[in-house]
Amino acid sequence: MNSQQKTALRLGTSHLLLIFFLVLVLVPYLIVVSASLRRGNFAPSGLLPDKVSLEHWKYVLGIPYQEVVNTGTGETRIIKAETPPLLWFWNSIKVAAVASAGIILLSGTAAYAFSRLHFKFKSATLGSLLILQMFPMVLALVAIYVILDFTGQYIHWLGLNTQSGLVMVYLGGISGYIWMIKGYFDTIPASMEESARIDGASQFQTFVQILLPISIPIFAVVFILSFISFMSEYPVASIVLQSRNNWTLAVGANSFLPENQQLWGRFSALAVLSGVPITIMFLVCQKYIVGGLTSGGVKE
Amino acid sequence: MSALIGRLQIRHILVVLLAVPALYLTFILYHSGNLWIGVGLLVVTCLGAFIYLNPSAMTFRYLFPGFLGFGIFVIFPLIYTVYIGFTKYSSQNLLRFDRSVALIHNETFLSPNAASYKYKLYAQDDGNYLLTLEDEKDSTRRFVSDPFELTPGVKPKTEPEPVKLSTWPPGQEVPGKPLEMVQINRGKLLIPMRAQQFALPDETLVALAGLTNFSSRERLWTPNPDGSFTSKKDGTVIRPDFRLGFFVNDKGERVGVGFRTFSGFDNYLRILTDPRIQGPFFRIFLWTVAFSALSVFMTFAVGMLLSVILEQKDLRFRQAYRTLFILPYAVPGLLSILILKGLFNQEFGAVNTLLRGIFGFAPEWNTNPWGARAMILLVNLWLGYPYMMLICTGMLQSIPSAIYEASAIDGSNKIRDFFDLTLPLVLPPMTPIIISAFAFNFNNFNLIYLLTAGGPQMVGGNAGETDLLVTYTYSIAFLDSGTNYGLASAIATLLFILVGFLAWINLRVTAKKVKI
Q1: Do residues B385 and B473 share a domain?
Q2: Do B367 and B508 have their domain in common?
Q3: Res A298: pLDDT
Q4: CA separation (Å) from A258 to A61, A261, A262, B427?
Q5: Nearest C-alpha in B relative to A46
């Protein structure tokens, strides 16, 4: 075998392997698209829907549609979602966007202090932040419930069953992002800020006017990563948000799938409608994210 | 100079804008009896004002907001959970001690020679109600109540506090619309009214007896100075047992509703000794470790394989492949988990439809413990490889190509290169990522809870075969019929120590490379 054949063989097997994996990755999503277009609420199975119907899409968008109740008599009824499920997607976007913005504000300022300023017990504090965050939020639910129940008695909009209360809880999870942003700040030489200080700029001015503008990429990464993790957060949201109108996507999507009556059609339509925009957003910003992941985790 | 003054003023205004509401809230908290929380808020407010006004605290201006959030929503819940782990706090011992005492104090019985009262209910414009009573034998004894709420048709879950009645002087009008018996009945007001007690000015309790009249009730228990209670009916004495979290009588029988109580290491001892907990606990622990280790290994292997294949410079469509392979990471994880749950449905799902069609067999993903475990690992591999692929790609790109050229001269092949050169170079910097991936999977609540909810059930226990420690704890605390916060918190504390230890090791490993 000459080297040209060898290369062809290597590339050929590579493509075969990649396509095999790609089928495994893509087929589940295609099946969900098809399940969202199929009449009835069965578990997703085939690739092509046998009876195409837009009923699930209409349901999710809150558009009324007719359903045949009795095939013998042809009796129909109008079905319309009381709370259009797409509202949950909107709720999720609101909560995740506000919480992510808050995360950037809190972790960005803290990361600045950890990267540029000197204070006692700095590295010990930084380490314990990471260790304490290891306590899973799920297991703190009792305490979180107690806190929100209490604050709700005094500040109505920060209580249980409020989205702002949920945002507050999410703002606690900053330590991973502090590490990530600090890692990025550390790679930026402080010389520019120092010369600005000599020119008479205050510390706050150098932070806002010099460091922040060059750090936009890492803030984009943090925003997207936290946004996506809040979009998927289930346990805390399911305990805090009680009324259907307030639910986030995670709580609503899972509510279609209780043990006894799983509404796969409706779930699929909701999954497609809400999954597609997020996925596109992620893929567009991919380049930044990959850079952020590799630079935040490990720094040589 | 003028810019400086302007900036200072903005800062001052902001501090005032935040401090004034905080001080107001402190006052309200103090006023409503939450002294210590009020003091806490006051301290935090003063600290904040000091930090933002005093130049010497400059550094902490950047740390204060973040630490505040972290303190309230991470550190406080942690301490609270550790504390609950040392108490008896469950569906049986639910109330605070003072609430439990109040319940006993308000327990009443109908005394044989009780006075009987005619009543009238007045609907108020704001939706509340007023009640008037008149003694059937002595029409000068007339009373009017404070306004109170009634939810039609609903018996309150917890016993409401008695509503106060005061003397109703003759000639004074009662506001609101008097209700006829028919209206009361049709408005389903009798149900909540029956659960409501009223207190006369002399502290005697009265309650609805029958449809048309109230009668005075006598408190069943007389408090004694030593904290015990004596029954007026038969003279039984009950006293609180702080070990049990119940009031007990002389025979040791429990009376009334249980209360929370400090229990030391009881919950921890239960984990170690109670066979109903200890058995499942160790099985779940083993599965949790196996699950985390296998997940990390599999995602790393597949992610590495893909990134190595995609690093071949002469491969076409590399960018397109890469984008498509990231998909499971880009789609919100919750949706992916639920989608795969549908595909793995044992009877109707796509996976078994396909396997039945090609190989004629259908694994029991939902009912067989090993099938369920296999499904979980496959799903987690599917969800987790893109992250590893991204990281490995970054690592591979940082390896200088010169070393491969050198080894090519020595006549090495690609596979030997990978194990002899690439892996030894990539593994050390990957260690912290591998450890944190392990810790993440150790507490991967979403995956298990949404995919199997811990099922199938373990034989002869209330745990599931695929439960991780974190979902097991969650079901003890929130889902089980016998909700047990104390035990759940004890397990949560152990879990935290385990994972915290992992994180600490991770820090030590990283600290050797990075100067913190």
Answers
A1: yes
A2: yes
A3: 35
A4: 21, 6, 6, 43
A5: B350
Question: Does one domain contain both B175 and B69?
Answer: no
Query: What would the mean pLDDT of B483-502 be, rounded to a whole number?
Result: 87
- One domain for residues B61 and B133: no
The string of pLDDT tens digits covering residues B25-60 is 999 888 888 888 889 999 999 999 999 888 888 888
Q: Which domain holds residue B17?
A: 2-85
Q: Is the pLDDT of residue B332 over 70?
A: yes
As a whole number, mean pLDDT of residues B173-197 equals 82
- Given a cut of 70, the residues of chain A with pLDDT beneath it are 1, 45, 291-300
Shortest distance, CA B329 to any CA of chain A (angstroms)? 9
pLDDT band, very low/low/confident/very high, at B436 (cuts 50, 70, 90) = confident
Tokens of B152: 């039609």
pLDDT digits (tens, 9 = 90+) for A250-263: 999 988 888 777 88
Q: Which of residues 384-403 of B touch A (CB under 8 A)?
A: 387, 390-391, 393-395, 398
Q: Taking CA atoms, what residue in B is nearest to A177?
A: B66
Nearest CA-CA partner of B299 in B392, B363, B372? B392
In a domain? residue B97:
no
Residues B132 and B61 in one domain: no
What pTM did the predictor assign? 0.81
3-class secondary structure for chain A? CCHHHHHHHHHHHHHHHHHHHHHHHHHHHHHHHHHHCECCCCCCCCCCCCCECCHHHHHHHCCCEEEEEECCCCEEEEECCCCCCHHHHHHHHHHHHHHHHHHHHHHHHHHHHHHHCCCCCHHHHHHHHHHHCCCCHHHHHHHHHHHHHHHHHHCHHHCCCCHHHHHHHHCCCCHHHHHHHHHHHHHCCCHHHHHHHHCCCCHHHHHHHHHHHHCHHHHHHHHHHHHHHHHHCCHHHHHHCCCHHHCCHHHHHHHCCCCCCCCHHHHHHHHHHHHHHHHHHHHHCHHHHHHHHHHHHCCC
Q: What is the CATH number of the domain that holds B138?
A: 2.40.430.10
Q: What CATH number was assigned to the domain covering residues A86-255?
A: 1.10.3720.10
- pLDDT greater at residue B288 or residue B413: B288
How many whole angstroms from its chain centre is CA A119? Answer: 34
Is the pLDDT at B407 greater than 70? The verdict is yes
Query: Looking at chain B from residue 404 to 443, which residues have their Cβ under 8 Å from any Cβ of chain A?
Result: 414, 429-430, 432-433, 436, 439, 443
CB A279 within 8 A of CB A289: no
Same domain, B294 and B431: yes
Distance CA A136, CA A142 (A): 12
Q: Which residues of B touch A113 (CB under 8 A)?
A: 59-60, 62-63
Chain B residues with CB inside 8 Å of A234's CB? Answer: 334, 446, 449-450
Rg for chain B, CA atoms, rounded: 34
Please give the pLDDT value at position B347.
83
Q: Which of A45, A47, A203, A211 to mutate to test the interface with B (most CBs of B within 10 A)?
A: A45
